[in-house]
């Protein structure tokens, strides 16, 4: 068979191809799930899985420990930071994979940013004013009342 060095190189390449594939799947499944309000629980589980993947990727950085602060950074900041800090083959491969998957990573970060801001939104006075039963959700009925109170939309406009 092939020499061990070639096997190692192929295995390493396939690992990063798989990670790029996961980034693609995560980004596009997340987009689809977020468009269907009946899939919120599945979307939450999916985001937990993504968080675990990010932690796994960060733990691969040869002993360098970071917290999940990365999730709030833009893609360019991540690349410049990684490019300046990382040495060694794992870090370089990760940067290459992130560059190749730039569109998917940006989409993932956009969703993480939205979900990280949700707590601030749901605890705001404006939100709680419309959350009549204080359950952290605005029901369609509560939303309809809020829209009518704003007098921006009429009943036929938001029934569509």
UniProtKB/TrEMBL annotation:
Question: What are the transmembrane regions?
Answer: 66-86
In its UniProt entry, the species of origin is given as Rotaria sordida
For this protein, the record's InterPro entries field holds: EF-hand-dom_pair, EF_Hand_1_Ca_BS, EF_hand_dom, Ryanodine_IP3_receptor
> What are the protein's UniProt keywords?
Calcium, Membrane, Transmembrane, Transmembrane helix
The protein, known as: EF-hand domain-containing protein
Q: Does the keyword Membrane apply?
A: yes
| Residue ranges of domain EF-hand in the record | 118-153
Q: Name one GO molecular function term.
A: calcium ion binding
> What are its GO cellular component terms?
calcium channel complex; sarcolemma; sarcoplasmic reticulum membrane; smooth endoplasmic reticulum; Z disc
Endpoints of the signal sequence: none
Give the record's GO biological process terms: release of sequestered calcium ion into cytosol by sarcoplasmic reticulum; striated muscle contraction
